[in-house]
Structure formats: structure tokens, C-alpha cells
Design brief:
By secondary structure, the chain is α+β, with helices and mostly antiparallel strands. It has two domains: 30 residues; 235 residues, no CATH class. It has eight helices and eleven strands. Strands 3-4-5-11-10-9-8-7-6 form a nine-stranded mixed sheet, sandwiched between helices. A two-stranded antiparallel sheet has the order 1-2. The longest helix is centred in the last third of the chain and has 15 residues. It is globular. The N and C termini lie far apart (53 Å).
């Protein structure tokens, strides 16, 4: 039993009958805030089942664990919850896990009901994440944020994070290159085609008209995965790149990953590996709407 619950039990023993209504409110508030046994911290080799949504339920054997890095000592204890984090592991780019059997209809129904009662499902602020390693490099992983300045532990590391599309996204919009068309329709008066960057990265890249030499290119690369239109890349002036794919498959999914600028030559390999792993890990019986 954690300290908060122990203190609460001592308080109940000492309270008088006239304070019982007030105690009921306190008990209720503590219960809602998590006065219960926490689950164990996941370790390498554990088998987990984590739900992104009903069309993407991941069952995987956990790989290499991450080392915790304190970003701010004043607030770290509020946000560091290793028992609720959903980090699958760090794997080589050619990692091919053996798929688990798909749910039957009855199994999925039972899972959905049970999962809704679990505390880690309520704590949905922790996205499903995993890392990929390029060029056969092995390095110790840390849990720095994907958007932090020093997110990567090595230039050969790729940090992947799954998210939802949000209510404003039109999930019926499945036309090819929709990322690129969206940006061109909104920014075609202020952006121009950048042939040099396009040739360098094997993508279609654009730059701001008035950005000068400091303007960072925005690029789009077509995915080889059926059902995914492609990947958009924000290439910052430093050596880091943030990639994003927003797709209607799997009930709506946004895949973000962080990659070093020097490793962009591997982006097609990274994109293919991400979608392949999601297919292999997914045990949902609901088939994703994949269209060519």
C-alpha cells in the first residue's frame, strides 16, 4: 500500500462520527486520484497488450528499456510514471517479430471491456513509442522527449511515437499525396519548389519565398506502404528532422518520428519498417481499411 493510502487509513481511525461526511468526500477524491496498487514497471522480455484504438491493439515482447533523464527536477516527479509508460523497446531497423494470433470476436469484446477499467488506459497521456536503430549500431536508449533539442541518443537512432488524428481531421480524405496537396494549397503563394533539397533527399521539397538561406525546407516523400500516402518532413536548421504521417488507416493514426538529418537517406527504410512492425504487432480482429 502506498503512503497516501496509509495516511488515509490512519486518518479514518482518528476521525469522529461528525466528520464522517467530510471523510467520505476525502476518500472519494483520493480514490479517484489513484489510491490503489500501481502495476509493476514493464521490463525487457515482458509480453504486453496495449490499445491505440479498436483497430490497432498491439501485442509485443518488450525490447531494450530506456534510461530516465530528468528534464526538470522541480516537476519530474509529477510526470515520470514508468509503470504507465508504453515504450515497446529499441530494435534494429530489420527487426521482424513473430506475430501473435489475432483476437477472436469474443476475445476482443472481453479485452475492450477489461481494458477500460485499467489505470494505464485511463492515463492516456503516455503514447505508444518505440525506437529503431540504423546501420547495426547499438546504443543505450533514454526517455527524452521526441521534440527536445537532444532527443536522439545517437545519430543512428530513430524515435517513433503513435498518436491520434484529432477531431478536426477528415478521416474520409484518402487521396494520394494528401499531405503535399494540403500544404501546397495553403502555402503555394509563400513557398516555392526546392529542386536542390528534393534531389538530395529523394523527396519533393519546398522553401519559403522570403526565407533566404536560413529558410528550412518542408519535404514530402511517398510511402511504399499500401494505404499510407506518405511522410512529411520538417527539416530544421540544426541537424534534426521531425517526420509525420497522418493516415485514416487503423481507425485514424498519426505516426511521428525523430531522425537525424544525416540519416534522411534511410527514410524509405524507416517508413517501411514502421508500418511493417505495426502490422506484425497488431492483434485486433478489425481489419484496417488499406487502399492503394
Amino acid at each position: 500500500m502506498n503512503k497516501e493510502c496509509e495516511i488515509l487509513n490512519i486518518s479514518k481511525a482518528r476521525v469522529g462520527v461528525f466528520l464522517m461526511p467530510m471523510l467520505f468526500v476525502v476518500v472519494t477524491m483520493v480514490s479517484l486520484s489513484g489510491c490503489r496498487e500501481k502495476p509493476p514497471i514493464p521490463k525487457e522480455g515482458d509480453i504486453v497488450v496495449w490499445k491505440h484504438n479498436s483497430e490497432l491493439i498491439i501485442k509485443a515482447k518488450l525490447g531494450q528499456r530506456r534510461e530516465h533523464v530528468i528534464a526538470d527536477p522541480r516537476t519530474d516527479h509529477f510526470f515520470y510514471e514508468p509503470e504507465y509508460e508504453r515504450f515497446i523497446g529499441q530494435f534494429p531497423i530489420d527487426y521482424k517479430p513473430k506475430p501473435f494470433p489475432k483476437f477472436t470476436e469474443q476475445e476482443q469484446m472481453a479485452f475492450e471491456v477489461e481494458y477500460a477499467t485499467k489505470l494505464h488506459a485511463v492515463k492516456s497521456g503516455h503514447p505508444i513509442q518505440f525506437n529503431l536503430m540504423l546501420n547495426g549500431v547499438v546504443v543505450k536508449a533514454t526517455d527524452r522527449s521526441i521534440v527536445s533539442r537532444k532527443a536522439l541518443d545517437d545519430i543512428n537512432q530513430v524515435r517513433v511515437e503513435l498518436g491520434g488524428l484529432g477531431l478536426s481531421y477528415d478521416i474520409t480524405h484518402t487521396s494520394k499525396y494528401h499531405h503535399e496537396n494540403f500544404v501546397k494549397s495553403k502555402l503555394n503563394k509563400t513557398w516555392h519548389y526546392d529542386k536542390q533539397s528534393s534531389d538530395e533527399y529523394d523527396m519533393k521539397c519546398y522553401r519559403e519565398n522570403n526565407g533566404g538561406s536560413r529558410s528550412r525546407p518542408w519535404c514530402f516523400g511517398e510511402s511504399t506502404y499500401a494505404g499510407a500516402s506518405g511522410v512529411s518532413f520538417t527539416i530544421f536548421s540544426t541537424n534534426w528532422v521531425l517526420a509525420s504521417s497522418s493516415e485514416p488507416i487503423y481507425g485514424g493514426i498519426k505516426v511521428r518520428y525523430r531522425i537525424d538529418r544525416s540519416m534522411l537517406k534511410h527514410w524509405k527504410e524507416v517508413d517501411a519498417a514502421i508500418w511493417d512492425l505495426l502490422e506484425r504487432w497488431n492483434i485486433s480482429r478489425l481489419k484496417a481499411d488499406i487502399k492503394n
